[in-house]
Amino acid sequence: METSLNYTKVSALMGLYRIKVKSGMSENFFDQLLMLVHDMLPENNVLPKSTDEMKKFLKVFGFGYDLIHACKNDCILFRKEYEDLVSCPRCKGSRWERDKHTGEEKKGIPAKVLRYFPIKDRFKRMYRSKRLAEELRWHFTNATEDGTMRHPVDSLTWLQVNDKWPEFAAEARNLRLGLSTDGMNPFSIQNTKYSTWPILLVNYNMAPTKCMKAENMMLTMLIPGPTAPSNNINVYLQPLIDDLKDLWSEGMEIYDAFLKERFTLKAMLLWSITDLHKDWLLSTL
Ligand SMILES: [Zn+2]
């Protein structure tokens, strides 16, 4: 059997991990799935055989995540000025979980946790790959000539961005991103207790066939359930928005493996696919 050319180790893992997240699969079942897929592949394949092994690999590879405690009523995140508080400054709710039977507070065990996969390191990593660094320039020379819409590059929003921010537009490597919730309706109610709400960043710099591939749909956040925080989703998006603001205003200096040079990368959030508080997102950028 040939090695699969369609999947790198990272994209295979991210694809499988997304299924776990979407389905609310337990770690035990996910271990079994990884084991099975591992056995299906040629003998010397590199796919991890357990969730633990996968997490370690993803962490080393820059896909580690930050755990950020959240108010159980979704008012605030315990970060920045609230980092050391043990109760929410708005609703006064405790930061810690309560034992269901005794009602006792379990100090140190957070009631709610947001997982954030920091984006800056991952952008740096993308440009260190010669292939990706080249693919990220695709949009620059591939706008439509016949007026048909094949890709966001042919959209009015894209042209408006070019018009309004010519300096940003002049650098082919600057990233144009969109927010998505992985095809799920963020405002529907899920019943599973451990449901999480994945937030993905889609990268529109690449060709249409590549944009929607698992490795380019970056899982950036897992917002804790049980229900979608429809009113307070902005609270959870803050760490991501902070990084996006930095990347928009300051940018960051990184290495481009295709052109073999350092440059200042900037990024812009074009829109959110679900129109999830889009006005608010754009107004903060
Ligand atoms: Zn609160």
Description:
With about 280 residues, the chain is an alpha+beta fold. It folds into three domains: about 60 residues; about 45 residues, no CATH class; about 170 residues, no CATH class. The protein is about 35% helix and about 20% strand. It contains ten helices and ten strands. The strands form three sheets. It has a six-stranded mixed beta sheet with strand order 1-4-7-6-5-10, sandwiched between helices. A hairpin with a 4-residue loop joins strand 8 and strand 9. The longest helix is centred in the C-terminal third of the chain and has 17 residues. The C terminus is likely disordered. The protein binds zinc ion (ZN).
Outline the fold blueprint.
Layout lengths: L8 H15 L3 H14 L10 H13 L2 E5 L25 E3 L6 E6 L1 E5 L2 H10 L1 H6 L20 H9 L1 H5 L4 E6 L15 E8 L4 H4 L5 E8 L8 H17 L2 E5 L4 E5 L1 E6 L5 H7 L1
The protein binds zinc ion.
Zinc ion binds next to loops.
InterPro entries: Transposase_21
Pfam family, one: Transposase_21
Protein name: Transposase-associated domain-containing protein
